[in-house]
């Protein structure tokens, strides 16, 4: 039986030839294509500035640095995310607080965030889980009221919209972070980006990406010692992405809207086939959201919760590359060790025990989508039979 992965990149001949062009040229790391990709992303999203990084994780670390997150600060994020969202703040020795989520979207609940804000809180990081935007206006109101920074972890949500605003426009936030890992909407192999409308944030992003070093004489704090001179102002990293990866990014970005449409068509097909089924809930799309369906997360109905392990195993045995997104971050041994020993958020826990992500990717044809539906129903029918006898 053919194995259907949960996600997969789509790279065509045009993408390959764009990468090869750069590889045959003189500059393969820091040539002109890095900026070309940044300009193209900024234009697509409608933000003033874009800085690309070598992963979504480094983009998050850079974004938190750019708003000054540091030791003694608290930041609030979702437990239903990849560990990188929280780790990126711990790197700066800030403390994380996890807020509970909305049951239906799996997104951080602004009401829960409000309860966690105190005088040490500096930053809120909502995650557009699965590609469904959070209710950004509500987070903006909180950020304004308590004078906090707001950074969107949009690693799942490139190509999505909040109301009429493109995810990535940073219309409601200080910065927006993307990942270009192969399962995401477009890929550069590994890669990430931060978009912002704030010049100070933009400048700090550029510094942190390159060891905290500036080569701009107008920024020197000491007298220049010659044309070779540069200064290090912060403890930074090598978070640079290469020109040939950005060539792939530029080429992929041209196809982004097509990719998102294809994802939405598959989601629509699943939604119709799975409507009102007795086994699981399907993803929602709120009025304010244009979902870009990085994932298609289903949630088991009450009766099936005790059988998740069995269901997951059977889906895999039937050739479906299902995944679980996510184990709540605070349950990780590392997080238990740093203070989340008996921590428990009821909706996040329920989400975790009920969630399974079905395969979805733009190159999936109708026949494959039908296969996913048929195999999924087959597994649930088998489990149901076991429950009856
Ligand atoms: C929500 C979220 N944040 C951050 C990341 C980190 O991105 P990357 O894998 O590009 O470092 C991911 C990647 O899976 C993610 O899903």
Automatic annotation (TrEMBL):
One record GO biological process: polysaccharide biosynthetic process
Domain of life from the UniProt record: Bacteria
User: What CDD domains does its record include?
Assistant: AHBA_syn
Q: Please provide, alphabetically and separated by semicolons, the GO molecular function terms listed in this UniProt record.
A: pyridoxal phosphate binding; transaminase activity
Q: Which Gene3D superfamilies match?
A: Aspartate Aminotransferase, domain 1, Type I PLP-dependent aspartate aminotransferase-like (Major domain)
Q: Which family does it belong to?
A: Belongs to the DegT/DnrJ/EryC1 family.
Q: What is this protein called?
A: UDP-4-amino-4, 6-dideoxy-N-acetyl-beta-L-altrosamine transaminase
Q: Which organism is it from?
A: Aquifex aeolicus
Q: Which gene encodes it?
A: pseC
């Amino acid at each position: 039986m053919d194995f259907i992965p949960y996600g997969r990149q789509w790279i065509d001949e045009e993408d390959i030839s764009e990468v090869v062009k750069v590889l045959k040229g003189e500059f393969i790391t820091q040539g002109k294509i890095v900026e070309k990709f940044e300009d193209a992303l900024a234009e697509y999203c409608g933000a003033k500035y874009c800085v690309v990084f070598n992963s979504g994780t480094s983009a998050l670390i850079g974004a938190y640095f750019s708003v000054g997150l540091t030791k003694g600060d608290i930041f609030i994020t979702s437990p239903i995310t990849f560990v990188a969202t929280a780790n990126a703040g711990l790197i700066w020795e800030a403390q994380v607080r996890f807020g509970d989520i909305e049951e239906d979207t799996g997104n951080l609940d602004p009401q829960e965030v409000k309860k966690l804000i105190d005088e040490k809180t500096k930053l809120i990081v909502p995650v557009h889980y699965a590609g469904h935007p959070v209710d950004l206006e509500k987070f903006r109101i909180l950020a304004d009221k308590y004078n906090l920074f707001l950074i969107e972890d949009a690693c799942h949500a490139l190509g999505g919209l909040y109301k009429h605003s493109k995810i990535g426009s940073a219309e409601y936030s200080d910065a927006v972070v993307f990942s270009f890992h192969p399962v995401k909407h477009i890929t550069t192999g590994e890669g990430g980006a931060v978009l912002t409308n704030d010049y100070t944030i933009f400048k700090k992003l550029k510094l942190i990406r390159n060891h905290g070093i500036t080569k701009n004489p107008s920024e020197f704090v000491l007298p220049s010692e010659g044309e070779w001179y540069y200064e290090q102002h912060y403890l930074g990293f090598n978070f640079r992405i290469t020109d040939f990866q950005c060539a792939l990014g530029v080429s992929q970005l041209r196809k982004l809207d097509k990719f998102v449409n294809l994802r939405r068509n598959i989601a629509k097909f699943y939604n119709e086939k799975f409507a009102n089924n007795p086994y699981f809930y399907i993803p929602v799309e709120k009025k304010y959201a244009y979902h870009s369906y990085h994932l298609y997360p289903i949630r088991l109905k009450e009766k099936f919760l005790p059988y998740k392990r069995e269901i997951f195993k059977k889906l895999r045995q039937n050739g479906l590359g299902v995944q679980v997104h996510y184990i709540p971050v605070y349950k990780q041994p590392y997080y238990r060790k740093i203070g989340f020993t008996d921590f428990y958020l009821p909706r996040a826990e329920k989400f975790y025990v009920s969630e399974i992500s079905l395969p979805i990717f733009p190159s999936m044809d109708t026949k494959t989508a039908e296969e996913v539906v048929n195999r999924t129903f087959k597994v649930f029918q088998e489990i149901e039979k076991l429950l009856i006898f």
